[in-house]
Amino acid sequence: MKKKADTPIYWSVAAYEEWNLIIAATDDGLCYVGSPEQPLAPIAEWAGRRWTGRPLQRDDGKLQPYAAELSAYLQGKQHSFAMPLDLQGTPFQLAVWRALCGIPYGQTLSYSELAEQIQRPSAIRAVGAAIGANPVLITVPCHRVIGKDGALTGYRGGLDMKAKLLRLERDVLTAEGARMHA
């Protein structure tokens, strides 16, 4: 029987329109979604820090269900994810990431609202740092956090990606509302 430390982290590329996102999973669930066009080196470095001693192994077949769910989201066909996640972080980071998953599709919160939601109203900067450390873009929807003034703020995938994800959600909800009232 393999020890957990010997078990690979599987990776693949999820392609959708102009985006090629490196995704990675353990046997327990999705653990990484990269930025568009990001090379493998940063993921290898991240995996080495978070999953010491575990090799990266490409496995397109094993990652296909995760890529399919991401594609369905990016096509506006699904609002949430059923895939299992395998997140490694501090208790504070995990609390922030759980709170991110509670932000409804098509809605946004400010960093201070999120800090209040996790009952840490003075920890706005720490909330921002935890959001920045989110390893699974899109599926843990950190793109739904904006500045208090409504401005788009930092995003590991870049502000262009963040704007596109927010626009996608807004457009899907608008189209669904129009169909309901037609």
From TrEMBL:
Its main location: cytoplasm. The active site is at residue 142. The keyword DNA damage applies. Keywords: Cytoplasm, DNA damage, DNA repair, Methyltransferase, Transferase. InterPro entries: MethylDNA_cys_MeTrfase_AS, MethylDNA_cys_MeTrfase_DNA-bd, MethylDNA_cys_MeTrfase_DNAb, MethylG_MeTrfase_N, MGMT, MGMT_N_sf, WH-like_DNA-bd_sf. It catalyses: a 4-O-methyl-thymidine in DNA + L-cysteinyl-[protein] = a thymidine in DNA + S-methyl-L-cysteinyl-[protein]; a 6-O-methyl-2'-deoxyguanosine in DNA + L-cysteinyl-[protein] = S-methyl-L-cysteinyl-[protein] + a 2'-deoxyguanosine in DNA. It comes from the Bacteria. Gene3D superfamilies: Methylated DNA-protein cysteine methyltransferase domain, Winged helix-like DNA-binding domain superfamily/Winged helix DNA-binding domain. GO terms for biological process: DNA alkylation repair; methylation. It is an enzyme of class 2 (transferase). Pfam families: DNA_binding_1, Methyltransf_1N. The keyword Transferase applies. One of its GO terms (cellular component) is cytoplasm. Its EC number is 2.1.1.63. Residues 91-170 form the Methylated-DNA-[protein]-cysteine S-methyltransferase DNA binding domain. GO terms for molecular function: methylated-DNA-[protein]-cysteine S-methyltransferase activity. It is found in: Cytoplasm. Residues 9-87 form the Methylguanine DNA methyltransferase ribonuclease-like domain. Belongs to the MGMT family. Involved in the cellular defense against the biological effects of O6-methylguanine (O6-MeG) and O4-methylthymine (O4-MeT) in DNA. Repairs the methylated nucleobase in DNA by stoichiometrically transferring the methyl group to a cysteine residue in the enzyme. This is a suicide reaction: the enzyme is irreversibly inactivated. This enzyme catalyzes only one turnover and therefore is not strictly catalytic. According to one definition, an enzyme is a biocatalyst that acts repeatedly and over many reaction cycles. HAMAP family: OGT. This is Methylated-DNA--protein-cysteine methyltransferase. It comes from Paenibacillus dendritiformis C454. The lineage of its organism: Bacteria, Bacillati, Bacillota, Bacilli, Bacillales.
